[in-house]
Amino acid sequence: MPNSATASLGFAHFIGQSDTVSKLLLLTLLVMSVLTWTIILNRVVAGRGLRIAMRRALDGMRNTTHANALPVLAEAADGGDPFQRLTATALAVTAPAANVSGLSYAEILTRSMRNCINEETTTMETGLATLASIASSAPFVGLFGTVWGVYHALVNIGMSGQGTLDKVAGPVGEALLMTAVGLAVAIPATLAYNTFVRRNRLILTKLNSYAHDVFALLAGKA
After folding, report:
1. Rounded to whole angstroms, how far apart are CA atoms 168 and 64?
2. Assuming Cys at both sites, which of 98, 166, 177, 205 could form a disulfide with 105, CB separation 3.0 to 4.6 Å?
């Protein structure tokens, strides 16, 4: 059964014995973790809506054979999904505007839809750069905390003159927990980043395919 000295060791004991630098590093990892899970929850909720919108738009386009039916797919575009906004953007392009600009209707339509897709891409990538930064930096923040903690633990042990294994193992083991915390922050960020990148790639592929269908209907009408 562990004695009271051994039982007192742990992460809470390490925090209590740590200096300002170690506490700041731990606070940094905590902020990273909160940001990671906030982004994950927001992206999961947004992703569920995008999948529903994608199925609805693709099913609607599959049953659409004439450009006159496109306004139905563009309903509620202001607060809608990327497919609705793309349809509304395409419908907003008119032949008179093309004549004024000196470009053909097809060129204006292509440019407008491409700009819309670029904007939707930027929106869907919101938070991914933060996830990537956390995934790559959190392990090193934790490792730095470990090195800093081990250094100060060894200095304190040396000053006390008690360098036996039982006196070294506890403080050093506590310091190593900082590396574990760094990994605990980085792993969810890495998995979430890869998942969201794959999901965005799929949705953007479908959005581009949808854009080609919209273009074909509108260009054929012009």
Report:
1. 73
2. 98
- Say if 181 falls within a structural domain: yes
Overall domain count for the chain:
1
Domain contains 59:
yes
Domain assignment present for residue 8? The answer is no
Give tens-digit pLDDT for 69-125. Answer: 788 777 755 557 899 899 888 888 875 544 555 678 888 889 999 999 999 999 999
pTM above 0.85, yes or no: no
Query: Cα–chain-centroid distance for residue 183?
Result: 17
CA–CA dist 185, 138 (Å, integer): 6
Rounded-to-integer distance, Cα 103 and Cα 15, Å: 67
Q: How far apart are CA 113 and CA 93, in angstroms?
A: 9
Kind and range of the H or E run holding 60:
helix 20-62
Residue-number span of the structural domain to which 93 is assigned = 20-221
Q: Which token pair is 164?
A: 């036996």
Q: Does the CA dihedral 64-67-68-69 come out positive or negative?
A: positive
Q: Which two tokens stand for residue 160?
A: 């006390």
Non-local (6+) Cβ contacts of 212 within 8 A are: none
* Domain membership flag for residue 35: yes
Amino acid at residue number 76: A
Distance CA 23, CA 36 (A): 20
**90 vs 114: CA distance, rounded Å:** 10
Helix orientation angle between 165-221 and 20-62, rounded to the nearest 10 degrees: 30
Contact 204, 124 (CB under 8 A): yes
